[in-house]
Structures are given as C-alpha cells and as structure tokens.
Amino acid sequence: LAALAGWVAGLAAAVLPQWRQSSYAGDAIITAVGLHEGLWMSCAAQSTGQVQCRLHDSLLSLEVHIQTSRALMVISLLLGFFGIIMSVMGMKCTKVGEEDPVTKSRVAVAGGVLFILSGLCTLAAVSLYATQVTYEFFRESTIPINARYEFGSALFVGWGAASLSMLGGSLLCCSCPAKERRGQQYHQQSQPSAAREYV
C-alpha cells in the first residue's frame, strides 16, 4: 500500500504544474498574478481566480534540468507500474503461482526492487529541479526577489512519493524468507504426516 501510494503521488507530482512558483519575498509584494511552472506547462493564476495554462511549446528549447526531470519522472512511473504488477503477482493473497511459494516470494522481492528504483528516480528528478530553483533564486542578478521563483507544492509531493515508494519497496524486499527458515518450515510440516503413516 505504501509503494502504491508513492506511485500515485509520483504521478500527481509529474502532472502538477506547481514545480516552482512566484516568490512573495521582498518589500514590494505583487499578488495580482501568481506564476507556476511545471514539467509540462506553465500557468498564471490571477487574483480573480482565473487560471491560464500553456503547454511548453518546444521540447528541445527547454532547459536541461527540465528535460532531465521529465525523463526521470517517466522512467520512475514506468518502473513503478511494473513494480505494481510484479508485487501483486508475488502477494500471498493472490492465486498466481501459489504452487511455488519460493518463486512467488522472489517475484515480490523483484517488485520491491522496482519500487526502490522508482523512488530513487523520483528523488533524483525532484532534487535536481529543486537545486536549479535554489541556484536561480540566490544567484546575483538584476531580477528583484519578488520576481524570482521558489519551491512549488509539487516538489514536496514528489519527495513524499519517493519516500513512500522506497519504504514500500524495502518492505517488499523483506518478504523473501531465509533458506534456513524455509527448510525448518518444510521439516516441521512433514513430521506429522510421517507420524500418521506409521500409525
């Protein structure tokens, strides 16, 4: 459930346009128009409640950190999707492959590994974008502070998604029983049946 929630949150973070937003720091605060930018579009929210969004026109004209974050988020979502499929197949409550519990647990572990990789990709994408926003905010320039950008809400959603994905993936990786435990369980289960045969 944690990994699934992390994947859904990662999907929401990738779609949301609030990766960076207008800064309200400084002396002259302008609240008439708030600007938001994301991986796929940029929006302008007016004080009247109207929001106008525009998709990024060209892929190649985008900055490098936006293109990299886009690619990492797409890879993260694909890894999480395959992780969901494999972890569902490896769950004990499903009927798929229940005749071989060892292989079933290994499939669950593989799903956990995919979720961990998905979380790492999300973490890298969000952290890269946040680093660029921080650099541009504190860079010495003629742009006033209230015209610069700060962290948007989608960045925090992305950090939470990465944490949930890695937590869920780690728990799935712990579902693989040790070889000694499997041997003890089979040995204990085989003793009563042998005793019944002798009786």
From TrEMBL:
UniProt keyword annotation of DNA repair present: no
Main location: other
Extent of the signal sequence: 1-25
Pfam families linked to this entry: PMP22_Claudin
Record-linked PROSITE patterns: CLAUDIN (PS01346)
Protein topology in the membrane: Multi-pass membrane protein
Family of this protein: Belongs to the claudin family.
Record's protein name: Claudin
Organism: Vidua macroura (Pin-tailed whydah)
Lineage of the organism: Eukaryota, Metazoa, Chordata, Craniata, Vertebrata
